[in-house]
Fold these 2 entries.
Entry 1:
Amino acid sequence: MSGRHTTLHPCIDRRTLFLAAGAGALATACGTAAGQPPGKVAVHGDNPAWAVPLTAAGKAMRSVAGIRLVPEVIPSLDSFEQIVKSSLRTNKTPDMLKYWSGYRLQDLARTGGIVDLTDHWESAAGKGWVDTSLRNAFTYQGRVYGLPMNLAYWVFFYNPEVFTANGLRKPGTWEDFLAACERLKSAGITPLHGTADGRWPSFIWFQEILSRQDPQFYEDLMNGRERYTDPRTERAMRTIASFFDKDWFTPMDMNHNDAAAGVVHGKIGMVPCGTWLGSTLVAAGGRPGKNLDAFVLPMQNTKARPSMIFESSALVCTVKGPDRTEAYKAAGAWMNPKVMQAFSHSLQDGCPNPQVPPASVMIDGIVRKARDDKLWMLNRFWEQGPPELVEATVDDLAGFLLNPSSYRTVLHTMQDRADEAWKVWREAEQA
Amino acid sequence: MTDMVTTAKPVRTRRRIPTRTPHQAVHHASVAGRRGGPLASLTWALPALLFVGVLLVYPFFRSVYGSFFEDNGFTSRFTGLDNYTRLAEDPVFGRSLLNTVMWVAGTLLLPVVAGLAIAVATFRMRLGWLAQLVIVLPYAISGAATAVLWKFMLTSDGAVNEVLRAIGLDGLATSWLLEWPQNTISMIIASTWQAAGLNVVLFTIGLRAIPREITEAAELDGATGWRMFRHITLPQLRAMTVVVVGMAIVNSLKAFDMIWILTQGGPSRSSETLALTMYRETFRLFHVGYGSAIALVLSVIVVASSWVYLRRQMPEATGSQ
């Protein structure tokens, strides 16, 4: 996500960029060591595109809680993580962070450097201000350590005009999806975007296919309860390999910006990604409802519980931040519908507060689908499992995407890594 | 003085030879003790020593110390030589080492040879300065900008493949950055495009420094073309070659920005060099101890190769000591 966003959102407009740069520069000038003046709290993140939404949320928060949020952007995933991890034990650490959910948040929580926000969560849940099914993604040892900031749904973007011109409709079943790929291929359009560019996107197809074949197995595998060498994982890899055999994929070094333009201009059929890619598609000329729409990949295994991948960033308070009291108070106001609406509508993405109206027609359609079909929301691959395991396995999956016939070797390598990483993780838990 | 100049016959003035009395010598010695003695000079060297100590020596020994620990940035545990044992068994480290060797060989072969060839070819050419200027221009571009430019060219749908397809060479169009070893080779070529310019400048300076008499004498003896280059020009450029090759070795061992922007060491860590592996292990995976071990190996390689090279190339300098 975030760092991911950094690489995936260069298509933000000039004004946004200037505002983000200005906010970043101002925030940097203010510094973190001395904290912010009373009534202001800094939120550190790695994504320049989030500076404007955070400012909008800050304005709304001022009317709700009398505290203004000040975005501070460290526009590099690596630098951001280094600063967070190296400063967490000092009193120079940022007051609030935009961090990842899942195991990355747990990794941070077990350092003892971030604040238990269970009270805020329960207060919000009591008012119906948070989707309680997300709780597990923000929990460590039964306590909540982060509040959801956004709720990105992992969908397939497509161009309805191109689909209509080729006699296709939004795929409602797995067979529809395969038929659409066949039809687009025969029409000279590359049906699917796949990429290893930037490393992390290598997991996209793995998580999408596996979760549509056996969501329970995906959840168990991601939590170290199943093995990568299982026949069910092999089946998912073979399915992806069959798409390669049919030549359905783009070159594996095509980034998401180019893919977004490809969908809008009718060169690429479908792009799987989080709903946060919507702003990039719009910047490339996409008009939601006309030449841009999205669908949730149908279940291949219709007997399994229908599922969808989600992604949600965590708002975190640090224990030693200079403005920690105000930061905690600000966190208490974060889930307020006014604050959440200002944030999600500015970001144009999904919202974890069910009382906030969807930011766009496209998001509205996905939210309805998730609600009507009672989709099981599964956290993204990137947030699942010990971070060092995920960092290593995305490289393994990249190897598979470049040589699909190597899937057995790749899965064995992944399992070896998983054995070691889970052992270390569990030892650390016991310690 | 004026009188001396105007007199017809030069007047020989007696030169005064400074002498020191024992008393003066003692006095000067005490001044020297205050300002110029061995201990006093330490005061002046202290800032430099402090900088080198804090920024170079301490981090080096801290890294050596850290390499004996398993350290995730929060907790650390002494593991002795385990990190070095892991290095020997890690296939990623092996690939990194191989890529690093490729970078050293490629950087020695391509930018140095190309720089020398272009400098010699354009040295006395009409409008040669213009050709040199064009070749030097990429050096003025930052490494990151160069990498972005080459990424645009080398992706599967990039400019290089588009050109190849346009001229009917579809068979040569390939995924330049996706497969090993062509991703490493492609990046070495991209780096050559940028680095060759500086080498052209340095070799041109070397060519200008060759005394004209030597080349004229060689010409009178019938030396032209390759013989002139082989027996006259090249030996005369030796000092400059030592500098250029030395710089090439160090630059190739610390290659980072080009690789980071073009492939991030991927796909599947196939294009990592030791510098990238060290960075990824330390700052992405937070294997601080393991990263320190890689840093130490890299440091040993850099220092050893530079030392061996300079010792071989400048024996007279070491001999005079």
Note: The longest strand of chain B covers residues 69-71.
Entry 2:
Amino acid sequence: MTEIKMAPAAKVLDQDWRNIFRWGAICAITLVFISLVGMPAKLDLRLIINPTLSLGYVSLFWIPVMFGFVASTHIALEGMEVSRPGMRDVLTGLFTGLTGSFGLVLLILGMNNFDITDPLVNWGPPLLDLLTTGRGIGTGILGWMAASAFLGMAGASLHVLTPLLRRIVSSAILGMISIAILEDAIDDLSEGFRLEWLVDLIYAKRGGLTNKSAIIVAIVMAAVSVLAQGKVKKAKANFFALEGPARKKWSVVLFAGTAAVVIILPMFAGGYVNSLLANVGIFLLLALGLNIVVGLAGILDLGYVAFFAVGGYSTAVLTSPQSPWFAPEIGFVPALLVSVVLAGIAGLAIGAPVIRMRGDYLAIVTLGFGEIIRLLFMSDFLKPYFGGAQGIVNVPGVELGFLTISGTDPKGVFYLVLAFSALAIYISWRLQASRLGRSWMAIREDEQVAEAMGINTVNSKLMAFVVGAVLASFAGSIMVARVGSVFPNSFMILVSIIILVVVIVGGMGSIPGVIVGSFVLIGVLGGPRQPGLLQEFGQLKLLIYGALLVFMMLKRPEGLVPSARRSQELHQDEFLQDAWFKGDDEADGSDEQTASAEGEGASV
Amino acid sequence: MSTETDTSASPSSSDKGQALLEFRKVNTHYGAVHILKDVDLEIYPGELVCLLGGNASGKTTTLKALLGMVKPTSGEVVLNGEVVNNQPISYRVSNGVTMVPENRRLFKRLSVLENLMLGAYLRNDKAGIKEDLEYIYDLFPRVKERLTQKSGTLSGGEQQMVAIGRALMSRPKVLLMDEPSMGLAPALVQQNFELIEKINNEGMAIFMVEQNANMALSIADRGWVLQTGMVVLNDSAEALLANPEMRAAYLGEA
């Protein structure tokens, strides 16, 4: 950090206008795009703070904040002096936000004067009303200019705040929004824990936090985060510093703790949380399977849904009394075993022809196979066996002798999914460290050299397909038993894509990454047909999936929770920068007094 | 096409005993294109031999056929007196043939140790693997310092060490090296050849494909020259170095 201090006025107005207008323009385009896509209108129904703030406005507000932050970021380069964040940066944010607001200003004026609802369905009075909050054009325009400039400034101020303040502000806001989004889940859980009174206190009757509770929640979240500051990191470091029996002991304790929570929690949860978690679990199974194929063996399989379908259909045919073909109905457990074998065979059958292809060709061919399987199940030709487009209904639940699990029993479904997820995680984990796992990694890195090392690449790749297929068939069987029916259209290509996004966003080749990815994407946004916590998104979730995928590929290709290997490889050239940030983090604790003295800019 | 001939009919043409690895009238094709034409080669234990030739003369194909990545359309590949035309790569690797690929081609995202262990992929004898690791640490102290580092982050010279180490981990009898000096700085090329000589001096047979004919012949015992898939010269290294035809064509002298 330099000690150079220029005259404030000259420095403050010495802006990089080009940069401001560039980010401002992108901000404006994003605002208009999000508005016209219909996100604010759709999400307006979901209240964060009742009646002050809806998720619709949040979907617009974060944009100037982000671009304000981005526009005022200085990239720290080794050997170059970086000016300390200050007033100038805050103004950069303000101007960026202001520039961005002109997007909405033009949109408001446009909607007021022209009618092009024909191509743009969301163009029109409802959106206009929403944007102007029903207070007229003038208020709307001035309001957005002020709001956007303020939010841009707020985003930029994040640079100026001391680390402690930044932590307080961000955890208060994010914590409050998370609590509001989690409303349904918390509501559901509270009944089990007899805490309805708390829920009634926090949440307004018709959804969302009340004004008062929002403030309280924000304060509590900030306080928790300040108190917990560094402790988690420290505990983690302590844990990894342990060696030998002590570490083993703590591992067992941690594992037992996690297991206990996961096993006990559903008992207190109602149908909502359990079915949400069951969805997450089914996609976790699928993602773990695809993770082996794509993440470990490096085979880009875009038709993965085929194995999901094979598992689902074989279970349905074997167990449903209404299945048109297979007469003697058998129980779920033997049916599952047969499904697994069939899926394995399907893995071999699809794998064998495509295994010799590479890269793009392989992706395209697997994409084709995925669709072929679905169309086969749908075809009239095979209708006597699989029921065609009408599918197979009346699939009974899982009979385990002592209890029957069906869709009407979300708790049972959850435990079933949990058992299989645990099994799948164990399998993935063991495989990763095995000889086969090593051969997959070698093939992913360089197939020819792997071959030269004596690895039978064809067999190894086929094994990846088979293991992936088996995990997918678990998911298929469970889903069918849960829903009680199976239709070809449950196995659209979209399912393959979403599983792939879960794996990529979570972190390819990383088991914790895949788990986190399933929770974040399927739990919050929802699966292709399954609603998540933010069910108001509806089809818009696909937009988010796409945006998230692009963002992750550009900025964090190793995923949310990368395997240690991937992250190093992809950020080689950022290594020095990382060292910088690390140094900053370490300084956080000790330099608090001096840092807060420097942070006056924040108040402006 | 394999003709499972009587394996006892070992070549007794030389006084050096049985050849470790040999080609008997090997032909290969890529599609319809004829690459190697009736190539005869033999590598004896402990030898350092090199294969020279211009671009597209079939040098790399020779290596691939020796290792089993390319199947001969006729002729025999013989390992320890046994015809191995139909044996997979894994069989040849576990019986003492290993390749150091062109440009090193490490598994870049894997650590140095993982690379080395993949070299021992076909082995199950833990004690022996450990022993060989120690041997490699002795040979390349630098490698030991970088065991946990991703191999893609190493310098060119270090990568070469890991590539050779990885090949040695299969405990080979003969090391096939594809252009070991390619992509290395001049100073490293010299060092690299010294290294090859050193490994050879410890008893390892080395079969080297090289463009740098001068350098390769200076350390080799024998050499072949390939031209459009045919062996045009086959002599001792000294004789090849002195051969005027050879000097004109490959050593850059008029």
Note: Residues 186-201 of chain B form the longest helix (16 residues).
